Amino acid sequence: MLLRKQRDKKESGQKVTIVLFGATGDLAKRKLLPGLYNILSTTPERFNLNIIAIGRRAFETSSYESLMEESIKKHSRRPFDKDKFECLSGALKYFKMDMGSQGDYPRLKAFLDELDNDGDRIYYLATSANFF
């Protein structure tokens, strides 16, 4: 629903940001990232979208993209299309963060505010229940 709603915001430049906590975990690799690829690969238009992948591992965005590409090739129900993947990976940014560290949350807020200036955000916690 929010992805449909944001189509109307294209002209304003406002983005929808999906913030994915636990982005290096099994749920993200097997279900969430392939699912986003499936959704975005079936739409004829480009979304005004940011995907912020948050994890504890020390990845650069480019190395995380490689991990995501392999995951999508393995777990997506749709055939892999490099052009469609590049649309998805163009929206992706990796943010290293320890969810147990209170000091990392102000850094995350500043990072998100710089990207979307308080636009619409979806937060997904693909993490252990002790972080809820």
Gross morphology:
globular
* Total number of beta strands: 4
What is the H-and-E element order? HEHEHHEHE
Query: pLDDT under 50 segments (min length 5)?
Result: none
Q: Return Rg in Å.
A: 14 Å
First-to-last CA distance: 24 Å
Number of helices: 5
Alpha-beta classification: alpha/beta
Work out the strand percent. Answer: 15-25%
Give the averaged pLDDT, no decimals. Answer: 84
Major β-sheet, in short?
Answer: 4 strands, parallel
The main sheet orders its strands as 3-2-1-4
Estimate percent helicity.
Answer: 40-55%
Textual characterization of the structure:
- The structure is a single chain.
- The protein has 132 residues and is an alpha/beta fold.
- Helices cover 45% and strands 18% of the residues.
- The protein has helices at residues 2-7, 26-41, 61-75, 82-90, 104-116, and strands at residues 16-21, 49-55, 92-96, 120-125.
- Strands 3-2-1-4 form a four-stranded parallel β-sheet.
- Helix 2 crosses helix 3 (61-75) and helix 2 (26-41) crosses helix 4.
- The two termini are 24 Å apart.
Secondary-structure map with pairings?
Elements: H1 2-7, E1 16-21, H2 26-41, E2 49-55, H3 61-75, H4 82-90, E3 92-96, H5 104-116, E4 120-125
Parallel strand pairs: 1-2, 1-4, 2-3
